[in-house]
């Protein structure tokens, strides 16, 4: 097996595994091969960067890469295993130990994610939360400090508020990420290790000033970690100054609402440290992605840019029409959005302003009634958490994905009890779906409970 030259691997050298073990060692396990990209393409269209990355072929020449389903890998020489465990030989030379450490198929997906986000390296995990928690545990030690946006996904907020202080003695100061003075004052030089925020916040769609926040953090020697789940392709945080970009791949990148997965994209030094046999959070905590899942996702990323354009196009059209109807709409593509110009200055050209729209119905009762009509009367969408599906998904954030936050925390984050988060899908025609929305709205008006701005 080892004497066959396979196309597997996500390596900087491009060399294949040899039958002999007299190769030079190296620890650049997950570096994207930059020579495969034109220097002039750096930080250009994410779809172009993705297309410029090396394409892996199947073992027998298939246009799709092979799935490496093995949990463990053989060696040809007895001493090779010792050299792999000592770090002399590794995935950079196509030497693999065990799929919790490195797997060729998962490495290939990481290469794709690195190309998409414009980072030096990436590695993929079993969930978005495992990517987030692993990054924070890698960058922060006991006694460490995080400065984070007060408007975050509920699970991330709970991790920072409850779990990390209790289990790891890592504390967090939550700030209004739009108040740069508050952010500066929260940073404790020598103690704060990470500034954490979402490029587009869940669920309020608040836009983070990534260049300014990164500058502030870097002036104090603080690493910037950005969750870009809401805006893949639309915005490139690493281009704007972020150090590490995390994703829940389960959402837009997957697109099928059938896979749970995450990714960590950033410098090779960070990603490699997370896979270290002795100190790596991903290696030792083990949130391992299955190779078959990695293959599935690698087949979906090539059409992500096309899907995002349609998600964003429909979101803008619907938000504009909802606004004209007098509804209280939050969408960064609207000129009335407080960070519209900021977002416009950061987005990648031609991809729009994101695929999520929020409607504030003021009360949970009104929100629930609207969603009931939209799903059960007009078939506009589904009442479900998550996002990025081809159908529109709707949830009342305060009582669902942000339920981990208490009433005061939700108020500070700007989460109204009646906030309806909509992930706008692209199934059917735009006019067909808009007609379904109006039909549900008409039913609301007839019942006398419709709230308008």
TrEMBL record:
Entry's Gene Ontology molecular function annotations: carbon-sulfur lyase activity; pyridoxal phosphate binding
Cofactor: pyridoxal 5'-phosphate
Keyword Chaperone annotated: no
UniProt entry keywords in alphabetical sequence: Pyridoxal phosphate
Pfam families recorded: Cys_Met_Meta_PP
Any single biological process term in GO: transsulfuration
Protein name: Methionine gamma-lyase
Organism: Erythroxylum novogranatense
Taxonomic path: Eukaryota, Viridiplantae, Streptophyta, Embryophyta, Tracheophyta
